[in-house]
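Reopening: Glycoside hydrolase family 13 protein still failing for me.
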Amino acid sequence: MTQHLTAPAPTAPAADTAPGWWRDAVIYQVYPRSFADADGDGMGDLPGIRARLPYLRELGVDAVWLSPFYASPQADAGYDVADYRAIDPMFGTLADAEALIADARALGLRTIVDLVPNHSSDQHAWFRQALAEGPGSPLRERYHFRPGKGTDGELPPNDWESIFGGPAWTRTADGEWYLHLFAPEQPDFNWEHPAVRDEFRSILRFWLDIGVDGFRVDVAHGLIKAEGLPDIGAGEQVKLLGNEVMPFFDQDGVHAVYRDWRALLAEYGDDRVLVAEAWTPTVERTAHYVRPDEMHQAFNFQYLSTYWDAEALREVIDASLAAMRPVGAPTTWVLSNHDVTRHATRFANPPGGTQLRTPGDRALGLRRARAATLLMLALPGSAYVYQGEELGLPDVTDLPDEVRQDPSYFRAAGQDGFRDGCRVPIPWTIEGPSAGFGPGGSWLPQPAGWGGLSVEAQTGDPTSTLELYRAALAVRREHPGLGAGQEITWLEAPEGVLAFARPAFACTANTTGAPVRLPAPGRPLLASQGAAPAVAEDGTVELPADTTVWWTV
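Support: Ran it again with your exact input. Result attached.
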């Protein structure tokens, strides 16, 4: 395959060692559609989130990241934005957003909002005017409009494929084609155009003035395309989650954009942050996004994609820490989000990628998920928690075809199209028409017995996954050996076991399906399954199968 990379990225400034709240923050992702519904229309909304903020404070997280709530036709669940300064009526009003941000701050929670700069909705005012004015319109230069190939321009301008399947180009009524790396309703901006850059500076200021603490930047690796939009090559399959070098992803020109944004955020103080959703070929490439004058954090998708296996986990942990060390950025850790199968279901199946269609062994998946959570929270840096994982929710793998709404489900050869399973509204109460999600139904059907996994059902039960998360986050906040930092010391351990030390702290994780005996590194503090194991007279301990234990040293 032909690789399309621009010149090497500029040399980074000295590593960033300045303190910052984001360096060890636990950030909770709220998917607004599915978190809490205040008005009973079956769709989650901002007032619903606002009412549940005390729950998040009690859980012990530091910040809330809100997936898109902007005005949108909802062709891709809000990632097709028609107006970046307006709230979609299904979620509430701008006043609701301002009140939510203010309430969160009063509770000691910071707020991060999604920003979608790679593409807009096809209903965005710019794109609608570009279509109306036709070829040669100055507005078309703000997107990627091109004549087609073939005798009558009937073929797409190049061979790029949409992440959602099919060509990445759609032909307009006047014969030109426009680029969309995702759905046809999501035309890509041309980030070489100064008007696009000016507009997003203005959007950043709008939300910073309202009081947000930062931005999670969607498809941060996609803004700049290789010069000339070159073909990829016959037979190459485009995958968002892959590690191939593509002419539309991870081009070095994106870094000038983020250096500009970092300078803009600095005008508002040193506590506003940028978080990159950047799928890159390597963690070393990811580190380019978090150099001291660019973003503050980048999602660690290599870690998310790693199966419950000690050798593979150690390899990605070492690579992640090593990649971030030269730039001084905190390493981030994440197990689930709104685009992948929940880890309680991924780990219930044999290794099979990040989107699965089978429920697997539910008990095994939950046991591994709990152990993986304690391992993640013990690592140095910042961690992300996706709504409902603290309840041990599995993916809903048996949704009827007629209720699915993921756009990639309806387009052949794209993502697997089963992202709806991790987006089913979460349960709050044991009883009720939508298990407490709201006074009515829910936009995606909840499984029978969903209330048995609810916040109400798990609160106060010391064996529940919710109480495990609450306990772990409390210990993480108070223990001096947890949180920020870059270093861990690996300890000798049997095959299939991870063991490492941090100051006054140790963690052991048994990824095998059988108990393992090993030297106890200290006094047991917290276990992912059952009571903390007892230390024998000879100083050894039996670590149960698929279990992580924290130790005070």
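The longest strand covers residues 110-115. If you still see a failure, please send the error message rather than a screenshot.
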